[in-house]
Specification:
By secondary structure, this protein is an alpha/beta fold. The protein has a single domain, classed as P-loop containing nucleotide triphosphate hydrolases (Rossmann fold, 3-Layer(aba) Sandwich). It is built from twelve helices and seven strands. Helix 1 crosses helix 12. The radius of gyration is 17 Å and the shape is globular.
Length: 255
């Protein structure tokens, strides 16, 4: 049985999509079978692996027009496929609002794929709306990328201590916190170091929830999506690539 992991943070621009695609790529590079699920209407995860302007996507699966198998497409990374998304998915937030069982639609979509993949990685939108709730309900663990800035810290703590606990108690008791990733770390700034220290202090009784590998700010990580490639294929020697390679080893030991 494979593991389903959701990457989430209610704040945008924290490295959530970057972490999803690159951890997935390094998992796949070890021979694991990986499925990326783009559950964000912006479709950034899809474009990060060169999938653009697909006729069908995860929205079509949600509304029952096609099966997930009909929509999944390969990525440049061997052993890694993607269930792509597009702007039409934003309509699902309205269409599912009054539907019974609305929080479990993604789980139903992914159920036929159990056993086909070693890891299913879900990238959610930067919000705590119906799409992100569906991601929580479908996963066994949640990984939270946290940008090393004060406002990112505030949003992160709110999401972790309130939303995830509510999901565990009402929708998905099997959901666990896989870990917290420090992203976009700039060693030249005192603030970035202070944020890490604050989080470590907040989790002093559960230090295992913090991944040891810290992802630095790196221009090559920012460039890779425009080429439709994960960092291990775009520039495997850069500091960003080496960091995600080390982080993926940590993730695979936990989930």
């Amino acid at each position: 049985m494979g593991q389903t992991v959701v990457f989430a943070n209610q704040k945008g621009g924290v490295g959530k999509t970057t972490s999803t695609v690159n951890i997935g790529a390094y998992m796949a590079a070890t021979g694991r079978r990986v499925l990326l699920v783009d559950f964000d209407p912006q479709g950034n995860l899809s474009s990060s692996v060169g999938v653009r302007k697909q006729e069908r996507g995860v929205y079509d699966v949600l509304i029952g027009n096609v099966s997930a198998e009909d929509v999944i497409v390969p990525t440049p990374q061997e052993n890694m496929e993607i269930l792509p998304s597009d702007l039409r998915l934003s309509g699902a937030t309205v269409e599912l609002a009054g539907v019974e069982g609305r929080d479990h639609y993604l789980k139903k979509v992914l159920k036929p794929l159990e056993g086909r993949y070693d890891y299913i990685l879900i990238d959610c939108p930067p919000s705590l709306g119906i799409l992100t709730i569906n991601g929580f309900a479908a996963a066994q663990s949640v990984i939270v990328p946290l940008q090393c800035e004060f406002f990112a810290l505030e949003g992160f703590l709110n999401m972790l201590f309130q939303t995830i606990k509510r999901i565990q108690s009402s929708l998905n008791p099997l959901l666990s916190v896989g870990g917290i990733i420090f992203t976009m770390y700039d060693s030249r700034t005192r603030l970035a170091q202070e944020v890490i220290q604050q989080v470590k202090k907040a989790f002093k009784t559960h230090p295992e929830l913090l991944f040891k590998t810290v992802i630095p700010r790196n221009i090559r990580l920012s460039e890779a999506p425009s080429h439709g490639l994960p960092i291990n294929m775009y520039d495997p020697g850069c500091v960003g690539a080496r960091s995600y390679a080390a982080l993926t080893e940590e993730v695979m030991k936990r989930v």
